[in-house]
Fold this sequence. Notes:
The structure is a homodimer.
Chain A: H1 10-20, H2 28-38, H3 44-56, E1 61-63, E2 71-73, E3 81-84, E4 90-92, H4 100-109, E5 113-122, H5 125-132
Chain A binds a DNA duplex through residues 4-9, 11-12, 27-29, 41-46, 48-50, 52, 68-70.
Amino acid sequence: MAKKQRRMTKQKRVILDVLRSTTSHPTADWIYNEAKKILPNLSLGTVYRNLNNLKEEGKILELSYGSTYSRFDGNPENHYHCVCVECGKVADLDMPVVEELDKKAQEAQGSSIFYHRLEFYGLCPHCEEKEMKN
Amino acid sequence: MAKKQRRMTKQKRVILDVLRSTTSHPTADWIYNEAKKILPNLSLGTVYRNLNNLKEEGKILELSYGSTYSRFDGNPENHYHCVCVECGKVADLDMPVVEELDKKAQEAQGSSIFYHRLEFYGLCPHCEEKEMKN
DNA sequence: GTAGTTGCAAACTTTTTGCTACCCA
DNA sequence: TGGGTAGCAAAAAGTTTGCAACTAC
């Protein structure tokens, strides 16, 4: 499937500029309000559309778990997960929690770190098998 | 502030059982539908309330980024974040991406891992300072 | 007995989408 | 000029909440 063509509009330009001009990891709504100062007619739908485009183009990151709803885990122990980029399935990983990561992060940040959450993205065995056949 | 007292109702019991009987990291809606097979009068609001209770009691995990909305980052390079558990602020961490983690995860899972996302939870310098004074 | 919990429905929040006019390449 | 994009508003999807009846302790 051919990649959809993308245009650089002034809205998109402003949204990207706003996002790059801050280190605060803003929400879509915050970006909307900032960008509106420059383009008063901007609409929120346009912000969302452009954020999605920019994300697909690899120009920005979205910091979310990937879906709009929460998933729950009956195991309250900290453990790692792998999300399949093909089918979206979430699997537990049988691998020990790397405690040293907290220590390293604490040095990097200079204040207390209590724990971390780590998610891997890849293919689940089932989807990998399917890929092999193509 | 005293901890609110919690009761074990049959709804809560069933919700927890359903969640513990699967490894599929279900959504609230899936849990609702499963639990409804046992308690036909169950309502979705009750499921959400109990999931939140169970989470606060530390009996289950919620796999989400912590808020109901997405945050965006103008830096598309993979890098780590620290979320302040006091004020919710998200900061970039100046620490190299640990590539070996992908390798370890790949061994644990037995199929391809492409990348990972790592978030630390702790106190930002500002909130840590405030804590010191108490 | 009483304070926490339920079921129900309405409200809320964030995000997506349908449509027409518009404008970038 | 043609097809992706903007603005607007309505809809969707997930989650929360107010309330009266109920129930666990």
